[in-house]
Amino acid sequence: MAVLLASATMTVAAGPAMAVVADVAISGTVASNGTTTLSYRATATRAGTLRYIVVTIPKGSGGRITSANATVRTISPGVLQWRPTKTLGIAVGARFSIPFYGVLLPSGGPWTLSFRATTTAGNVLSAGSATFTRPANVRINATKPIPGQKTTLTYAGTVGRTGILSSVRMKLPTGASGALTSINGTLSISSGYATWRPRSRRTVGAGARLAIPIYGVVLSKYGGVMRLGMTATASTGAQMMAGTGSLALIAPPAPMPTIAAGSFPVRPAGCPSVWPATSVENAKAGTAAWVIPVSLNGPLAAYLTKVSATCGSTVDLKVTSGRPVSVVAYRMGYYQGLGAREIWRRDGVPTVVQPAPTVGGTANGHPLRMASAANWTKTLTIPVTAAWVPGTYLIRVSGGGYASYVPLTVRDDTGRKHALLIQQATTTWQAYNWYGGRSFYSSATTGSGRLTFNRPYAEGQGSGEFLGLEYGLVFWAEASGFDVTYWTDNDLDQFGGQLVARAGTIFLPGHDEYYSLRMRASLSQAIKRGVNVGNFGANAAYRRITFTDSTRRAWDIDRYTAGGSSTLWRYLGDAYASQPLLGAEYVCGVAGNSLTTGRGWLFQGVAAGTVLPGFLAGEVDYVWPGLYKHPGLGIAASGRAICRLDGKSAPMHATVFIAPSGARVFNGSTFTYSCFLLRRCPSNLRIPTPSVASRRAVTTMVTNITNWVGRGTIRTPAGPATVAATAELRAAVPQQRLALDR
Questions:
Q1: pLDDT tens across 212-234, in order?
Q2: Reported pTM
Q3: Do 472 and 673 form a contact (C-beta atoms < 8 A)?
Q4: Which residue has the higher pLDDT, 624 or 266?
């Protein structure tokens, strides 16, 4: 709201007072109720204590006129007196800015209006007059205001001065196309503008309302809240009207195909129909032997021929070493804070030095530049028996002075519905995987257009992004004793239609960026059917991939049509952005920015104003005003972070909404929830090692999120298993570097 500026805020140029002129200016803006706000601006030409200001308004004006920081009264027709509510000392050069709200303007115009400010001693502080032209009050309507639709746009504005109308020029929405036509005149299109000219001589009076329809406008697939200008010009060349109007072109969420549930696999002989409760499993003896110290990092590498498995299946292991190795499978969890339990092992396994990965391939005439170790020979077949309780596994392969992890997720395919399902972001791990010298991010011209799971992970000591961004959530959920199960991105694509039958709530990890159509459709369908979503990350469902076949051992991405732009879901249009799915949209990559806690439910149990150093890191999302917002969308937390690429400050919004199905969706908008739970964050995100207090604050926040998202269905068992609030990982896990989006 405009206010009178006090002299203490003004800077006065050197020179005598006579050099200062009043410089009166009067402008107007039209409110949504049709009234006008008249704003008078003038410069004080002498000093003194202000008594009142007298202004003229267009004769015949009406309305209930008010102002700010003052009382307003009519002293004669068309003359108002503005008297401040407190004593104001005015210096030479101070700038007055006085608004008058609620003015109903008469017809006609322009008008010459005056301004006079008087001191308590009766001296004139400032006086002058200016021409006021009726504001155009431009309004723009669309019959179908949805990106990608064919629509009729109508531009309407109020003429400020009388004249013979020559033309009306209108800014078209960005990217608009089509065979455009209008009525009662000719229409020409140039450089994103439409110019309408009347067919016959037409005199238009001040205050008249011009309305020009434009038919056949095909809107771009990208929308937003657009400011579009409209100007009218007289035959003399004088401007009769000028203004801008706002047009909101917001795409609703894109329709998705229905994903059939299909049937659950037949339970093999020897596999249980019910697995042990999480609290029972984690009461078993744990071990810290799963940890690989950095001194064992080296050339040894390995991968599995399956991303996930189920009881009764087998999976092949391929290792390059040349020395005998030990292969030990650890189920990751709480286990007295040691973090894992040994499930299976085989010692003295012979290995070979495998051939170098291949790089190449083409599809549809495009170079794929895919790094693959499919040419490796099998080292060992691992049986997934009833001893392998469903969960997340790291298989430790060690020998010859080196060691590496191989990740595996074991699904519960019994058909039992769990309170919580935690998803591993395997497609995103693969996008950032540099093993063999190529990843999606190698460069614009050398990056892969196809990526395969037939190679080890170069990151996280072979664990991909699991240790850096996901293990903390697993550790916390198992320490809590939740009824939790697990699967991967690959499983979301294959079994996504079963999500509603497998879990009441799904948790997405810190960085779940790469989604196929089936993945996105399955998640959208699950929300519509009442499955809650807790996204403990940012930049989710952002890039679009296609699995090459039913094995889901490789996926393609379109980096050829328009470079990096065509890799995005949003390249299909605003309806496919992440925000219409999860509530917020990616902004940029950030590193080590602090979050200050607030007073909402997310921070219940954490003192308001607590600073969490480095919590805004990796990447952040926020609510874009030009994208679809779910009804009732709320912002549970907000902050600002510095973008890595341009050094600019960007907003961060953690969002919540409740879908019509009742499903609750939380979008966390930063990578760090999981790593703060362990006090082990990726070493290159410039996050100060989280303090015990920071870990406990984030643990409380994650608990609050779980309670809100899960609607009370994710219950912590009573008794000694309730340890999550104080549980800390006792194993000394090396900090992992995180591959980042360039």
A1: 999 999 999 999 999 999 999 99
A2: 0.89
A3: yes
A4: 624
In whole angstroms, what is the distance from residue 506 CA to residue 532 CA?
6
**Best CA proximity match to 501, nearest among 525, 518, 520, 477:** 525
Residue reference for tokens 């309408």:
196
The pLDDT value given to residue 1: 27
Residues in Cβ contact with 454 at an 8 Å cutoff, skipping those fewer than 6 apart: 303, 305, 372, 373, 374, 553, 554
Give the Cα-Cα-Cα angle 38, 41, 47 (nearest 5 degrees).
Answer: 140
Residue type, 320: T
Q: Which of 529, 524, 488, 478 is nearest to 508 (CA)?
A: 488
For 288, the token pair is 């810290």
In terms of DSSP H, where are the helices of 205-359? Answer: 278-282
3-state secondary structure 535-563: ECCCCCCCEECEECCCCCCEEECCCCCCH
pLDDT above 60 for 338: yes
User: What b/e sequence results for 681-714 when a residue is b if at least 16 CB atoms lie within 10 Å of its CB, and e otherwise?
Assistant: bbebbebeebeeebbbbbbbbbbbbbbbbbeebb
Element (H, E) at 50: strand 48-56
CB environment 375-397: b (16+ within 10 A), e (fewer):
ebeebbebebeeebbbbbbbbbb
The whole-angstrom separation of Cα 308 and Cα 331 is: 13
DSSP secondary structure of 266-282: PPPTT--SSPPPHHHHH
| CA gap 395, 407 in Å, rounded | 6
Strands (E), 453-495: 484-488
Residue owning tokens 């596999």: 271
Whether 463 contacts 395, CB under 8 Å: no
Strands 402-411, 308-310: pairing kind: parallel
Write out the two tokens for 633. 């969308």
**What count of other Cβ atoms lies within 10 Å of the Cβ of residue 40?**
27
Kindly report the backbone phi and psi dihedral angles of residue 728, in degrees, each rounded to the nearest multiple of 5, phi listed first: -130, 145
Rounded to whole angstroms, how far apart are CA atoms 22 and 33? 32
Instruction: Judge whether 474 and 678 are in contact, CB under 8 Å.
Output: no
Give kind and range of the element (H or E) at residue 194. Answer: strand 193-198
Sign of CA dihedral 182, 184, 190, 193: negative
Predicted local distance difference test score (pLDDT) of residue 16: 44
484-488 vs 514-515, strand pairing mode? unpaired
Measure the CA–CA gap between 393 and 462, rounded to whole angstroms: 12
Question: How far is the C-alpha of 103 from the C-alpha of 66, rounded, in Å?
Answer: 9
Quick: pLDDT tens for 1-35. Answer: 233 433 333 333 333 445 789 999 999 999 989 89
Give the distance, in angstroms, between the CA of residue 386 and the centroid of all CA atoms in the same chain. 41
From CA 465, how far away is CA 69, in angstroms rounded?
57
